[in-house]
Amino acid sequence: MAEHMLKFVSVPQSTPEKRQANERRVDFDEIYRDFATQQAAEQASRCSQCGVPFCSVHCPLGNNIPDWLKLTAEGRLEEAYEVSSATNNFPEICGRICPQDRLCEGNCVIEKGFESVTIGAVERYITDTAFEKGWVQPIRPRRELAQSIGIIGAGPGGLAAAEQLRRLGYQVTVYDRYDRVGGLLIYGIPNFKLEKEIVLRRWKLLEEGGIRFRLNFSIGIDATLAELRAQHDAILIATGVYKPRDIGGPGSGLAGIVPALDYLIASNRDNLGDIVPEFASGALDARGKNVVVIGGGDTAMDCVRTATRQGAKSVKCLYRRDQANMPGSMREVKNAQEEGVEFVWLSAPEAFLGDDHVTAVRAVRMHLGLQDASGRQAVEPIEGSHFNLPADLAIKALGFDPEDLPGLFGEPELKVSRWGTVAVDPKNFMTNLQGVFAAGDIVRGASLVVWAIKDGRDAAAKMHQYVQQAAVAAAAE
Ligand code: FAD
Ligand code: SF4
Ligand code: SF4
């Protein structure tokens, strides 16, 4: 092992080349270039092959990171791909968009002093190479099972579950109200973080593996949950969370104040070549405008960086806490700053100014007060500190809540938490309705792609158990 590994002392950390800010701010292409083969092997060889790998412990999927790093360092990429894809349905996606600084890489033991192994970039490199070489093949179940599974939602949670269940031989149908597969991977997360080709090739592969997709099909409109239950042996609800948190106050009804996801979906659709009327009319296009994005999470970062690429006159991010207390990934904040976004920290909106259309956001300075019960510092306005920021487009990126699923699905019995997320038995992912399971953001609240994949995989295992037990019980009757 020593020949190939433990090189962190002699080989410095190097990430795949990041395109210059002035080049990347004029297009929607991914900002990181690919690792060259030699660089990937070298970077993988920095791993010290820890007995207790904290990187894996802090990867929600428990990926076998030291093993695939070692195989990469040794040039055994096909085996690295086998190991990496055994625990993760979409390693090339996680490699691109996981907040590695908070997960695997942030817990790599060589982080202190030598800078972590670039785990995400190697993970992405392994599976991108596997696609290039034709090692990624559609599912071919060893046997076909008669039972069928219905999955509501083609986001990462639903897709991971669909793949796991199809592998076991189930007849799997995924329903989605959108016209494309991927959920937030396709319409939420912008191209510069995750090129859409990456998502579209997974869709094709899943279809080739025998998973059926019924798109433009909304549960609650085109069918009730009860109708779906009658058609399938088990159901998974993986519908994500989409109800935007709103800001009230004077002027909040003016034109030009838009929810973040409407804005991002229009941009993603435009990039995919769709005709988007709200984009063509300019209502959801930042070109030539002063843009103010309100919020400090990853969605806000995606909005400011999209506005920059659309050719906005100015882009400001208004956040009521300071940089150290931002919920968004530090890497994305840095990328946004490099691309010319101005951050207005410790400031909150009070009112929107304008006659019919917004012309400015009136804000007030905040200061951080004492910690609350959750350990977060409270924020309080500083009296008399008002100021106006010019804005022709104000984007609200304050987070998302679940829709009213019992109402929407025509299933008042479906139990939800006090936040509206679907309540499941944590031991088996089943809701209070027999044979109806749930996973991903609709259970956790807005979270991460890697957690949706993890939940989708775990729920699939429990659904398999449930369907098989039901089959045994039926045979015994
Ligand atoms: P979703 O991806 O939301 O998929 C749910 C699917 O269900 C959708 O396709 C929807 O159309 C469908 N659906 C909903 N209701 C119905 C219905 N009634 N009938 C039929 N279909 C329905 N996470 C990261 O890890 N890294 C990031 O960089 C990152 N960036 C993000 C940027 C933005 C702008 C946003 C909003 C989120 C981001 N996230 C990121 C979070 C991540 O995208 C989500 O945690 C993840 O997609 C959740 O997966 P899911 O499968 O539970 O739901
Ligand atoms: Fe790291 Fe995410 Fe990959 Fe896990 S899935 S190893 S957390 S990048
Ligand atoms: Fe390698 Fe870092 Fe993981 Fe240790 S923590 S096994 S050094 S990647």
Write a concise keyword list for the protein shown above.
477 residues, alpha/beta, Fumarate Reductase Iron-sulfur Protein, Chain B, domain 2, FAD/NAD(P)-binding domain, 3 domains, five-stranded parallel β-sheet, globular, binds flavin-adenine dinucleotide, binds iron/sulfur cluster
Provide structural commentary.
The model has no long low-confidence stretch (mean pLDDT 94). Strand 7, helix 15 and strand 8 (314-318) form a beta-alpha-beta unit. With 477 residues, the protein is an alpha/beta fold. It starts with 20 loop residues before the first helix and ends with a helix. The longest helix is centred in the C-terminal third of the chain and has 28 residues, at 449-476. The chain contains 19 helices and 15 strands. Bound molecules: flavin-adenine dinucleotide and iron/sulfur cluster (2 copies). Residues 97-98, 152-158, 175-178, 183-184, 188-189, 193, 218-220, 238-240, 264, 298-299, 302, 408, 440-441, 447-450, 452 line the site of flavin-adenine dinucleotide. One iron/sulfur cluster binds at residues 47-50, 53-55, 65-66, 108-110, 117, 119.
